[in-house]
Amino acid sequence: MDRPAALVPHHYVALGGRGPEDVVADSRGRVLTGLEDGRIVRLDGVTDPAAARVEVLAETGGRPLGLELLADDRLLVCDADLGLLRVDLSDGTVRILADSVAGEPLRFASNVVALSDGTLYFTVSSRRYPLDQWIGDLVEHTGTGRLLRLAPDSEAPDVLLEGLQFANGLAVSGDESFLVIAETGARRLTRYRLTGPRAGESEPFVENLPGMPDNLWRAGKDGPVWVSLAGPRVPPLELLHRAAPAVRRGVARLAVRAPYRPTGMIGVLAVDDDGTVIHHMARRHSGFRFVTSVCRTGDHLILGSLWEHGVAVCEAPAPK
User: Fold this and answer.
1) CA–CA distance, 42 with 232 (Å, rounded to integer)
2) So where does this one cross the membrane (predicted)?
3) Which helix (H) or strand (E) holds 251?
4) Which among 56, 248, 270, 282 is most buried, taking Cβ atoms within 10 Å?
């Protein structure tokens, strides 16, 4: 992978709450995100910190993570506590689309995409650890992540893929022939085929990423998939993953009790539908930490974070 270009935040915009875990941009350049206290907010004028305005659109009552904008002024929300939700942005009404799968409560839903036929696909990061103990899953390397599908007019999701290492961000190819899944615990992107003779099969798409991938975002079918890197590669962790399950479980129990502070490394990638990395941007020592999402609006990249109390605004790279 080429030497990364500089990822330098020009300014920050506070949101009045912590943890804008996923950021998405609408057609007017406004940025939507969910906060730790359950609020869904919209940020207008993000590129001008003096004029930026924050508007509360809804409250889920849980912990919103991944978001997906729909064309009819509605928003899909993966809520770590409540399941898969749909929010009407005109009046803030919240509807639960799915809160269980195969008789099991749906917890730690992470990211969602909607296809043109109305089918929804979404990820579950872990079936063993809740959001506030996410580090335990990365340490234990449980492989309990899932890819789920919710068909139109259905209330029961189907399990399409299991055994994922902390399934996280999700994006669809421009022709809707496959999905791209971020496996944070494996430092890779995985392709799940939706059409063709190999439909239903999965395979590595981009491996050995320079950091741990989190949320994915793309503006449209012609744009690249943007990948946030929540943290750097950790060789001792990868060595631990080769240890016996009992050893990993023991270390995980310690990890969830230890105080956590993210490193200053931040990074993002842009990948095309052939799996080619067309942009790689990074910074080793940043005041803005734990970048869990990225989206683009105009000439700027907007960075979200599970850790911070606002978003960072960076200059976007020139198109390739």
Assistant:
1) 29
2) none
3) helix 245-255
4) 270
Residue-level pLDDT at 49: 84
* Burial letters 130-156, b for 16+ CB under 10 A, else e: bbebbebbbbbbbbbbbbbbbeeeeee
Structure tokens at 36: 């730790």
3-state secondary structure of 279: strand
Count CB neighbours of 121 within 10 A: 25
Q: What is the largest CA-CA distance in the chain?
A: 54
Instruction: List CB contacts of 197: < 8 A, sequence separation 6 or more.
Output: none
Paired residues of 35 in beta bridges = none
Rounded alpha-carbon distances, angstroms, from residue 231 to 92, 101, 264: 33, 30, 9
- Asked whether 200 and 160 are in contact (CB, 8 A), the reply is yes
Total-model pTM: 0.96
DSSP per-residue string spanning 44-111: ESTT-TTT-EEEEEEE-SS-EEEEEE-TTSEEEEEETTTEEEEEETTT--EEEEESEETTEE---EEE
Q: Which two tokens stand for residue 218?
A: 């793309």
CATH of 5-315, one of 2.120.10.30, 2.60.120.10, 2.60.40.1220, 2.40.50.140: 2.120.10.30
CA separation (Å) from 235 to 136, 186, 239, 267? Answer: 17, 12, 6, 18
Measure the CA–CA gap between 40 and 20, rounded to whole angstroms. 9
pLDDT in tens, 82-129: 999 999 999 999 999 999 998 899 999 999 999 999 999 999 999 999
Structure tokens of 35?
Answer: 């906060």
Q: Report residue 222's pLDDT band, with 50, 70 and 90 as the boundaries.
A: confident
As a whole number of angstroms, the distance between CA 56 and CA 146 comes to 31
Length of the chain: 320
Question: CA–CA separation, 39 vs 32, rounded Å?
Answer: 11
